[in-house]
Design goal:
The protein has one domain. By secondary structure, the protein is mainly alpha-helical. The protein is globular. Helix 3 crosses helix 6 and helix 4 crosses helix 5. Pfam families: CLAMP (PF14769). Keywords: Signal. It comes from Hirundo rustica rustica.
């Protein structure tokens, strides 16, 4: 299934007509001047993305902890996994030399996929379908001004790398994440046990 959805997304991306960066910038300017209301689906603000981009890995982790308001890292396995998920994702995208706009879009998509699992309780199949819709720029509703992901901001090669990353980091471990978010209660995790469990997740 993971291979099939990747092929489907690639075909959808390849079929899109990509405007030039200049036209994209002009469209954004027109939206700003015209006061058009854009759906606010940004996971991290551009100022937060900028601050993260200026840090080393340790600094990214510290700032991500602050931005996500994670206050129980010493006792909450869930918070520790969330921090690792977003920190690892941002660092991967930074090493891909994504621009600030691309970093923002990628983090939106990373959050979108996890929210579909944790908040909407989507099955793996449904989440993959939503990923396909998002990465081909299909809006959820006709009234929505933009989709969660702008395919025009990325090359086909970059989009393919993003799909590969999401498959490796989230979708291949879907059952583990489902258990993490939907088990009846989260037992406190401390010290050595927390370290061992986190190492298991970091083999993603």
């Amino acid at each position: 299934m993971l291979v099939l959805v990747s092929i489907s997304v690639f075909r959808g991306l390849a079929a899109l007509e990509r405007p030039s960066p200049k036209l994209q910038a002009e469209d954004r300017d027109q939206d700003d001047r015209g006061g058009k209301k854009i759906a606010n689906r940004t996971f991290l603000s551009l100022s937060q993305i900028t601050a993260l981009s200026e840090e080393n890995l340790e600094g990214v982790e510290k700032k991500m902890e602050e931005f996500l308001n994670l206050t129980q890292l010493k006792t909450s396995f869930k918070e520790s996994v969330l921090l690792d998920y977003y920190t690892a994702g941002f660092w991967w995208a930074k090493e891909m030399n994504f621009s600030l706009i691309q970093l923002s879009g990628f983090m939106d998509l990373l959050n979108f996929a996890l929210e579909n699992l944790s908040g909407k309780r989507m099955t793996l199949g449904d989440n993959l379908k939503e990923l396909e819709r998002a990465m081909t720029g299909i809006r959820e509703t006709e009234s929505e001004e933009r989709s969660v992901f702008d395919p025009n901001s990325f090359s086909i090669e970059q989009a393919k790398a993003i799909i590969d990353y999401l498959v490796t980091s989230l979708f291949k471990h879907y059952k583990a994440y489902e258990y993490l978010f939907h088990s009846r209660r989260e037992e406190p995790v401390i010290s050595n046990e927390l370290t061992r469990l986190l190492e298991d997740f970091r083999t993603i």
